């Protein structure tokens, strides 16, 4: 038995929209295998990125309303492009599953994603499932991370513990015990945000080198020297010591935070170069991940798989591998498909679960009172 869904993701890195078309094949024993049929990246234009960044700092009700509908159109366009690449008839697609874009996230106090799903349904002519996080929050959870259900049921190992570390704008990790089969006990699965992914690295690059969106190939970071006192000071923030479940977002790592980060680096080292600032951001991210693993992952881990935009940065990959040594650290794509598609595939899977009235949250990840069917359906 198989179903084809479209998955849409706009992450906190503000890079753009990821759209996938994926077929989920369910075996007789209930095991599910994802087959990636298409993967499209639609980078945000400078004006689009600026509007989203401004909205995440605060905007008028009129601008939020306009941007919600505009983003719905951008998401619909990305879905249409992915469907064309996949060569699948629309009549064979069960639904579109859209994460949308997080404007504000307050954990158990509330969460807000927009990218109007009614616009997606109207433009694509397909049932659209969206608003995945709010039901978990209503059940007392953090509303994040939600990817762990896909990690556990699609990408776990039967013989060893595994970590799946995502490096979007925010970093988050899924801690997977050995799991086998669709009826595996998920009570030991844990997941939580580790802190920044690439938001500080990218933010510093955009501030220091106008015109650059990010540190392509880690060129700047690899030429710099990290400033250890700045890293140590920032890691003393009580948030990093707080036990899971926990989540964070751009509301913590704001433009003001990044400006202060650059200023701290300049003050801490005479002659501090732009490259030193970017290297410090890279190593701060890597150290925050290592600290989370040290404090909250006592199990022996077989391997660590990196996904998300930050996994393309060789400087960040190298720093994470060094801080997590002797664990084997490698890109998600070495074992599965392109890691940049992973979160969009995960939300397509959440849509697949929604259609079957099956829970999409993992209590050990979000802290919700129990399993809940996630998402709201917008008929075509």
Automatic annotation (TrEMBL):
EC number(s) from the headed UniProt entry: 2.7.1.170
Pathway(s) per entry: Amino-sugar metabolism; 1,6-anhydro-N-acetylmuramate degradation; Cell wall biogenesis; peptidoglycan recycling
Binding site for ATP: 11-18
Claim: Transferase is one of the keywords in the record: yes
Single GO MF annotation: kinase activity
GO biological-process terms attached to the record: 1,6-anhydro-N-acetyl-beta-muramic acid catabolic process; amino sugar metabolic process; peptidoglycan turnover
Enzyme class: transferase
Function: Catalyzes the specific phosphorylation of 1,6-anhydro-N-acetylmuramic acid (anhMurNAc) with the simultaneous cleavage of the 1,6-anhydro ring, generating MurNAc-6-P. Is required for the utilization of anhMurNAc either imported from the medium or derived from its own cell wall murein, and thus plays a role in cell wall recycling.
Descriptive protein name: Anhydro-N-acetylmuramic acid kinase
Catalytic activity from the UniProt record: 1,6-anhydro-N-acetyl-beta-muramate + ATP + H2O = N-acetyl-D-muramate 6-phosphate + ADP + H(+)
Family, similarity comment: Belongs to the anhydro-N-acetylmuramic acid kinase family.
Pfam families registered for this protein in UniProt: AnmK
Keywords: ATP-binding, Carbohydrate metabolism, Kinase, Nucleotide-binding, Transferase
Signal peptide: none
HAMAP family: AnhMurNAc_kinase
NCBIfam families (UniProt xref): PRK09585.3-2
TM region(s), chain numbering: none
């Amino acid at each position: 038995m198989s179903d084809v869904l479209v998955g849409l993701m706009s992450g906190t890195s503000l890079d753009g929209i990821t759209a996938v078309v994926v077929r989920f094949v369910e075996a007789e024993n209930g095991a599910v295998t994802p087959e990636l049929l298409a993967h499209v990246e639609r980078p945000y234009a400078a004006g689009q990125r600026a509007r989203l960044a401004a909205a995440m700092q605060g905007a008028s009700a009129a601008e939020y309303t306009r941007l919600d509908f505009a983003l719905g159109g951008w998401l619909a366009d990305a879905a249409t492009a992915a469907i064309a690449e996949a060569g699948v008839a629309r009549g064979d697609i069960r639904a579109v599953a859209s994460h949308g874009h997080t404007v504000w996230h307050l954990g158990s106090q509330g969460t807000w994603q927009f990218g109007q799903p009614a616009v997606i349904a109207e433009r694509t002519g397909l049932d659209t499932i969206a608003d995945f996080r709010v039901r978990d929050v209503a059940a007392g959870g953090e509303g994040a991370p939600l990817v762990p259900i896909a990690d556990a049921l699609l990408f776990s190992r039967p013989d060893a513990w595994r970590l799946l570390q995502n490096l979007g704008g925010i970093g988050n990790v899924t801690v997977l015990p050995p799991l086998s089969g669709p009826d595996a006990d998920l009570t030991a699965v844990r997941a939580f945000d580790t802190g920044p992914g690439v938001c500080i690295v990218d933010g510093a690059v955009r501030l220091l080198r106008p015109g650059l969106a990010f540190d392509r190939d880690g060129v700047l970071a690899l030429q710099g020297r990290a400033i250890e006192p700045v890293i140590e000071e920032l890691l003393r923030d009580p948030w990093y010591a707080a036990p899971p479940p926990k989540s964070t977002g751009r509301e913590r790592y704001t433009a003001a935070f990044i400006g202060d980060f650059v200023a701290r680096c300049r003050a801490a080292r005479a002659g501090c170069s732009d490259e030193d600032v970017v290297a410090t951001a890279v190593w701060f991210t890597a150290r925050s991940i290592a600290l989370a693993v040290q404090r909250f992952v006592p199990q022996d881990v077989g391997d660590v798989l990196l996904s998300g935009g930050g996994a393309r940065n060789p400087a960040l990959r190298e720093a994470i591998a060094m801080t997590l040594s002797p664990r084997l650290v490698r890109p998600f794509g070495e074992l599965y498909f392109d890691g940049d598609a992973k979160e969009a595939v995960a939300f397509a899977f959440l849509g697949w679960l929604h259609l079957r009235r099956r829970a999409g949250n993992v209590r050990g990840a979000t802290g919700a009172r129990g399993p809940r069917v996630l998402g709201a359906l917008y008929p075509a």
